[in-house]
Amino acid sequence: MGYLQEARENHVKKKVEEALRSKMKQKALKECDFYCSKYAECARGRTFSVVWQCRKQAKELNDCLHQFTNDAVLEEMKKAYMVEQEGKEKNQ
Fold this sequence. Notes:
Belongs to the CMC family. InterPro entries: Cyt_c_biogenesis_Cmc1-like. Keywords: Disulfide bond, Mitochondrion. It comes from Leersia perrieri. This protein is mostly helical and 92 residues long. It has one domain. Helices cover 82% and strands 0% of the residues. It contains six helices and no strands. The protein has helices at residues 3-9, 14-31, 33-43, 50-53, 55-68, 71-91. α2 (14-31) crosses α6 and α3 (33-43) packs antiparallel against α5. It is rod-shaped, with a radius of gyration of 18 Å.
């Protein structure tokens, strides 16, 4: 499949892409809740020292979030959205 054809197939409107990104972020935060809690616990009561005191927890959280918020995940969500829309159009 050529690059242009693939780009056309995965093209969605800007508002739809923003909604998909938001959904992706919500899912990531839900999936990484354990790491969010660990980081929040470490950061509690700290100001500037959070940068070096919670570096390990921040890295763990970012690594987890990256699993669920990357371009590959977004492309899969776009494909699923397009398939869903095609199904709706066929049913009408």
